[in-house]
Amino acid sequence: MTDVANDATKEVDPTAQADKIKQMLNGLTKFGDIINSHEGQKIAVLCARYQYRGVVAHVGEDFIVLANARSVEISGPSAKATPEREDDIGGFVIIKHDAIEIAYQPTWSQAPLSFEEENAELTSNETTTSSEVG
Question: Could you tell me the CA-to-CA distances from 89 to 25, 33, 54, 114 in Å, in that order?
Fold first, then answer.
């Protein structure tokens, strides 16, 4: 999903983009099957009233479960590293397939979802920086 979503920032040949999308879908035609193929990945889900981001934890017949869910109030540009404003839901959300308008992976959907994840990223960056300096 990510490559297709990020193609919006540059001019792309429509035929090449259609081919990329077909390859990504790999013959899947049902919404639940497409979302299920992203199990364990971070995604953003736009519904009529709210936007959420989290990790696809489970896909049921007519719903999906996002773990480590956050409600995104203002997303900002798709290529931005983090959403402009969001609230930690403190667990998971269950969203009906019928409520979902768009499921996608903008760059900001990949931002850390938890304090532990943020610390791991900071530690990784500090290790890289200190090894580059030494």
Answer: 30, 26, 10, 11
Q: Of 75, 84, 129, nearest to 106 (Cα)?
A: 75
Report the domain count for the chain: 1
Predicted TM-score (pTM) of this structure: 0.72
Q: Picking from 14-28, 29-43, 92-106, which range would have the lowest pLDDT averaged per residue? A: 14-28
The mean pLDDT of the chain is: 83
- Retrieve residue 95's tokens: 């969203």
**Which amino acid does the sequence have at 5?**
A
d(CA 133, CA 4): 36
CATH code of 90's domain: 2.30.30.100
Element (H, E) at 85: strand 85-88
Q: What is the pLDDT of residues 86-97, one digit of tens each?
A: 999 989 999 999
User: Is residue 119's pLDDT more than 80?
Assistant: no
Pair 106, 53: CB distance under 8 Å: no
Longest dimension (CA), the chain: 54
**Could you list the residue range(s) of the whole structural domain that residue 7 is in?**
2-133
